[in-house]
Specification:
31% helix, alpha+beta, elongated, 138 residues, 22% strand, 6 strands, six-stranded mixed beta sheet
Length: 138
C-alpha cells in the first residue's frame, strides 16, 4: 500500500511539473486588428500582428481583417471574397503559407513587388546556362 501511495505521489508530482512548464510558455497571440492590440503587460514579446497570409506557390494573399483573397488578374491585384474557378483545384488548407508580419497597408502590390520580386526566378539568363543549352542543342 505504501509503495502505491509513493508511486501515485510521484506521478502527481511529474504532472504538476509538466503543467507548470507548459503554463510558463504562455500563448502566442495572432491578431488581425492592429488598432486593438492587447495591453503591453499581456505577453508583449509574443504578440504577432498579422493582417495578410501569403501562399507563395500560387501568389495569393488572404486579408484576415477584410476576409478577402488578393491575387493577380492580368497585371492588376484583385480583391474578392472567393477565389475564381481557376483556383478550384487547390486546397489552401494543405498549402504552405507565410504570415506577413507588420504590414497593414491596403496596397498589396507595393509589398509584393518589394518582398517577392526575385521569388520563383530561374537562372535561364545566366552565362553558364546559355553555355549548357548550346551544348545540349548542338
Amino acid at each position: 500500500m505504501a509503495n502505491r501511495d509513493i508511486f501515485k505521489s510521484g506521478i502527481l508530482f511529474i504532472i504538476v511539473i509538466v503543467l507548470l512548464l507548459l503554463a510558463r510558455c504562455g500563448p502566442v497571440v495572432v491578431t488581425s486588428r492592429p488598432n486593438n492590440p492587447p495591453p503591453p503587460w499581456f505577453y508583449p514579446n509574443r504578440v504577432e500582428v498579422v493582417r495578410y497570409v501569403y501562399f507563395p506557390e500560387y501568389s495569393i494573399y488572404y486579408d484576415l481583417s477584410a476576409r478577402t483573397y488578393l491575387y493577380l488578374d492580368g497585371d492588376l491585384w484583385v480583391r474578392r471574397n472567393v477565389l475564381p474557378s481557376r483556383y478550384r483545384s487547390i486546397d489552401l488548407r494543405r498549402s504552405r503559407y507565410e504570415r506577413i508580419r507588420n504590414y497593414n497597408d491596403d496596397n498589396i502590390r507595393s509589398y509584393h513587388e518589394e518582398h517577392n520580386a526575385n521569388r520563383g526566378r530561374s537562372n535561364r539568363n545566366t552565362p553558364g546556362s546559355r553555355r549548357n543549352n548550346s551544348r545540349s542543342n548542338g
